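Lab notebook, bench 4. We co-purified these components, and the gel suggests they stay together. Before we commit to crystallization screens, I want a quick structural picture of the whole thing.
Request: model the full complex, all chains together.
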Amino acid sequence: MAEKKKKEIQISEAETKYFLTAESLHEEIENRNIEIATKYIELAHPADIAETIEALKFKDALFLFRLGDLEKQRLIFVELTDEKQSEFVDELTLKEISTIVEQLDSDEVTDLFSELDKEKAEEILNTIDRVDTEMIRTQLNFSEGSAGRLMNTDYATVYMNENAYRAISSVRRAARNTEDIYVIYVMDENDSLKGIIKLKDLILANPKTRIQKMMKPIKAIHYNTDQEEVARYFQKYSVVSAPVVDDSGKMIGRITVDDVLNVVQEEATEDIYRLGGVSEEESLTTSLWSSVKHRLIWLNTNLFIALLTASVVSLFEGTIQRIVILASLMPIVAGMGGNAGTQAITIVVRNISTGELTNYNWFAAVRKEFFIGIINGFSVGLVTFTVTMLFRNDIWISIVIGLAMLINLSIAGLVGSVVPLILKFLKIDPAIASSIFVTACTDMFGFFCFLGLASILIK
Amino acid sequence: MAEKKKKEIQISEAETKYFLTAESLHEEIENRNIEIATKYIELAHPADIAETIEALKFKDALFLFRLGDLEKQRLIFVELTDEKQSEFVDELTLKEISTIVEQLDSDEVTDLFSELDKEKAEEILNTIDRVDTEMIRTQLNFSEGSAGRLMNTDYATVYMNENAYRAISSVRRAARNTEDIYVIYVMDENDSLKGIIKLKDLILANPKTRIQKMMKPIKAIHYNTDQEEVARYFQKYSVVSAPVVDDSGKMIGRITVDDVLNVVQEEATEDIYRLGGVSEEESLTTSLWSSVKHRLIWLNTNLFIALLTASVVSLFEGTIQRIVILASLMPIVAGMGGNAGTQAITIVVRNISTGELTNYNWFAAVRKEFFIGIINGFSVGLVTFTVTMLFRNDIWISIVIGLAMLINLSIAGLVGSVVPLILKFLKIDPAIASSIFVTACTDMFGFFCFLGLASILIK
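Here is the predicted assembly.
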């Protein structure tokens, strides 16, 4: 296994040590082997060191972390999970924290501060540079999950009436303070965003050509745009960075693709968790009690629905006592309705999230789900009819279960596709609430339909 | 609504037309208004044109597409969905296709050819340049979903013993044929990858400095690496491109982050679909019959499980006839077990996908899920006991349902976390098969436990 892994990701020979991972080092660090630990902190990639720190006991982690110089500490710190960052903030001295905070990019600071409690945040804010403080306060005003929170405020700009030669000089100056420059933003004399130019095109250009002639148009993102929308922008236009503007169209920051990659991953996790009845705040590292609490909300909601369903069944207790075989068959109808409903929910919810289900094609999607429900209801109904005939040899019971299956699966397709759309229209997240409503429908209707048909048709 | 949208994504004034979307244009295009259609093709962003084309009737789409020059056609073509690309390939003349294909990047070509049937692919391969043909055939040999398929073969390289001045000249030459240069790959005299240098650092550098002194180490990706692993690499190291190497460590291509963004989105959709019992090949545009077929497989598998479950219930038909109230209560126990099991599956499957659940922490995760199961089983069991007492006023039935709930939810936590891990170990995708096994368990065990306890305890 270990050997296979090694083969998959190869390391450029010369600098193998840069990508050292920790496994073999744990013991050395626990024994406070300063020589080896220092070498590791010096040579390994910050992302790998962060992974090591997450795996170490907290005291060992702190020891390792403090061996790095300021720049290294910053690089490692931003790679840590939110939980671990909070732990570090609690444990490091105020001076240590504020020197790290002063080195962070604006989006990284904001991310950190949104995790801290108010008191701790104020305490740190009071120790750091006033200009930085202003900047952090401004960015914290943007709502969570918006473009304003994702952006950072370091980027390179040139003026559209400069020529390429002068523009390169401007970029050189900016480059010293900006970690990544892929694209340069072009402004007019009023500092209003007019377009972009790629760094490589600037280098290729004739030094005398004016920027205006080379720049490409760019669609800017308003600071209040939802991060899901931002992710769609990046996917659609295949860019590595995008400008963020205020109400007046003035550029106030840029979003880079590495942050968007995290957004896409986060949003997907949120959808999966919500569909599965788990809070998006849960992770492998959340405490047992916090997990218990979050999940109980979901389970109790479902219990309420289940009790309602039970009361539907209890209406037919007389019929069940008369034909007891109905008791073993009824969960099949309800359960299959739930499965078919879940399929419809899955397609609709995911395509709402990715932006593929729009105001234009929703009707076609619902119609398709309804037809699928009917066809699969017919097909599954036929199979159930046949199997019931084979094992129970009762034509009326077989007809009832087959018919109930057809009806319940058709309803499941319709409800499974309409409910998420209604929830979306009501601005409720379809991922979180669809399955409750749909399961309630398919369960109650499944039992009602099967037992009702049975009490009418079977004498 | 329309007004709100406009505010969210703003367009740099000067070039509004570049981001025109089609809605208002549909009619003009249907009426073959060549003037307006040509303006649109000239000015709009290829990604927006592609969106328009997807929404138009096919004949209108073809008319619009053919108005673009070759470069524009290529840019639009790569933005189309796989389905639409296939439609175009069927309809365009062989000459039109081969000129487009010759312009595509290597990963785009491979992507296209993997969608075509063998015959059509051969036909096109025979019309294009021999060098390109070789390249396409080579890349098609990499397995689907591997790094080799994702990479493209255009990138900029310099030698480690060059100085910055000479390196910039090399990059200038490469830049003419390479769409995006963010990072330059550094080779030794044997063309073996030694490191990278950012374009901006090259520009900042003293012209006389040797590349070797400025380059940073880089971890290369083997061509056979799974794309999910590739996505994790990009997330961990926050890079915009990464080198792909062959068995001997020679660089054979590079993967760019825009492709990775699609991979992350695709893999998330695959997980969500599979967890919901939908084939990852389904989309809003797949045909009704293909959807029906895929979903029936899932439904029939579930039907089989449901029939097994029914046979468990039928063992207790005597007890149910004696105490008919059990019939309405038994689905509650089974259903709640299913819900709790789904919660555990969701956490475990998602964290396997994102790489957070590893060989080191799986045991802690299972233990936690088991404890959550016990605690929530106790809590939900207590609520169920109380509600049953209130409505049915039967102490023994209330005890039985409370106890069965406790046991079934504990089992659900254990099974819901262990099954995905076992499947992963057996190299079966946990997302696709977990819920079948877990639901089978919680259903059968739920009924067995509840009805079994009832027949023992209630006289």
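Residues 361 and 367 of chain B are 10 Å apart (CA to CA). Worth comparing against the SEC data before the next meeting. The longest strand of chain B covers residues 193-198.
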